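User: My collaborator sent over this chain with a note saying "see what the structure looks like." That's all I know about it. Can you take a look?
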Amino acid sequence: MAARRPRGDDFAQSFEERVIYINRVAKVVKGGKNLGFTAIVAVGDKNGRVGVGLGKAREVADAIRKGSEIARRNMKSYPLSDGGRTIPHPVEAEFEATKVIIKPAAPGTGVIAGGVVRAILEALGVQDAITKVLGSRTPINVAYCTIAALDQLESLEQVAARRDIPVERLKGGLKVR
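Assistant: Without extra context I'll predict from the sequence alone. Here is the result:
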């Protein structure tokens, strides 16, 4: 029988939680304004897994907690290259009116990105990448667009399997880090 997944605090401590954006919203009703908050949270293990969640609540802390829980449920694994330092190949994605471009970078470059994309890539464990956001820079759209771009990542083995050729032929005799 398979071992159970760690629960509670032990499970939560292995993840880095980054609050990307907090927005105050107001619903106008007959008696006045009902205030609420939304929070975008990125949760990652800094080892190739990351998730993004949008939490909504009347209090900031509750919105962050809900966003964190949703992000944990939405976590996905992504292939990283060069020892987990960068992404394997350039990707770009569109979501609504936002376009995100993410490119691998040489060692020591660092993560060159705006706040939302940087938070997600750092939670993922990427140390070197170059990014550009085009179009709408609404934090929610940028976060979802970044995840859509990461969904396009494929490892060398996945590309070889999809094309039905050996990995060595893909490398073409070149030294791959």
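A starting point for your reply to your collaborator: The CA atoms of residues 13 and 83 lie 23 Å apart.
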